[in-house]
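Late entry, FE2/S2 (inorganic) cluster complex.
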Amino acid sequence: MLFPDFDTGNVLMLTGSVEILWDGHPELEGFIGADRGWKFNLTKGMWLKNLLPFSAKFDAYSPNTKMTGTWLEADKNKQAKKLKHTWQPLKVTKIIKESNVITSFYLEGHNNTTLLPFKAGQHLTVQIPSKSRSNSNSNNSNSKPVIRTYTVSSSPHELFYRLSIKKELNGEVSNYFHNNVKVGDVILAKYPQGQFFIDSTNTKPAVLIGGGIGITPMISMAKHIANEGLRTRYTRPLHIFHSAKNKQQRAFYNELKTLADTSGGAIDYYSLLSQPELDEKQGGGSNLKDESFDLKGRINADVFRYYSPLDDYEFFLCGPDAFMQHVYNELLLLGVQDKNIFAEAFGPSIIKPQVLNTNEAPNKSKEISTEEADNTVIKFSKSGFEQRWNKGDNTILNVAESHGLEPEFGCRNGSCGSCAVKINAGAVVYRNNVSYPVETGQALICCAVPAKGVEILDLEL
Ligand code: FES
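Prediction complete; structure with ligand written out below:
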């Protein structure tokens, strides 16, 4: 190995033997993005004075150099991983208004909390203090914290988590963020997780389709792909379709347009407005200040046909349920296979696949089971009451809430894991695809109902 000192012209030469540490080796754990490592055993070292025929001044590190972090950072990552499922304090360091309905909150570690690496597209689970709930909605000062999940809109190479949150009319948590959260506040969050993410090394082109606030995972993915392009010299081809109601509600236009314009042709970006205001002109101006859009109307099969030569691509969908179901149906019309469609939903329901009971469900999650119990008894053992349950009744979370219990929950669609409850006896089945890797012996009660053949379902609730 040669270590040139460009200031002095000296070179340090080391000789020895090398052992390759392949991906998955315990010593690589904690080094973000490391594919492999090598261990050098020194046999001889030598300083070669004034060897370089030139000198140079340091400018900046290559993006590759610092990508995997230092030994100290790797150790911190290893420690933080053990706390992956616990609440961690994160400090709000910046707040940026992205549109008239979407605001971004930048979060960094608070009091030595280490930010764990994540995959572009994953989400963060946050809780807001119980007092906000009791102040706004009830007089019960013992109310439990409210938990929600939000996609991280920053890229894994950035040194912060950025949550971009849409202010929803009746959204308790989104209103809390928009109205109460200030720079310097500390938020409790669990580290990012989720099964909706993109692989930057895949050679298939990817089509990212975001509707409204559903653009948040797409911008994380696009930034990640662009950064990996710089780092590895391979940029996965991307086509980004961004649907918004109008320019006032649209977020990240400049960021996405700049990514596309500087990608050397690997990334293209199309903005669609379903209800543009009267003064919004359609066109393709290159001046970023002249915010324009490419098409008026909704995304449909014709738009895909016109803008992208559809082939063996992967499709990533995110947005409101109706938007995703519509886009999913349009993609099937074009002959896209289920196995190439990946989806992330906001809210309790997700895409209804046109083919059920298949391993090719849209988000590659567990097979839908239809084997619900005909009738059974649900026993909430900690709370001490029982409830008869008949086929077609609500999910266990709804049943518990209707009895005044306040179990934790976040996404209500099986992707965050917040509602996991221990099963003391019996078994459950899921009414929709759950993407969270629930542990054996636990149930995600937001989507679960008693399984066929179970007489008593006993839950630690
Ligand atoms: S609430 Fe998120 S998995 Fe149930």
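The domain at 84-193 is CATH 2.40.30.10 (Elongation Factor Tu (Ef-tu); domain 3). Will revisit in the morning.
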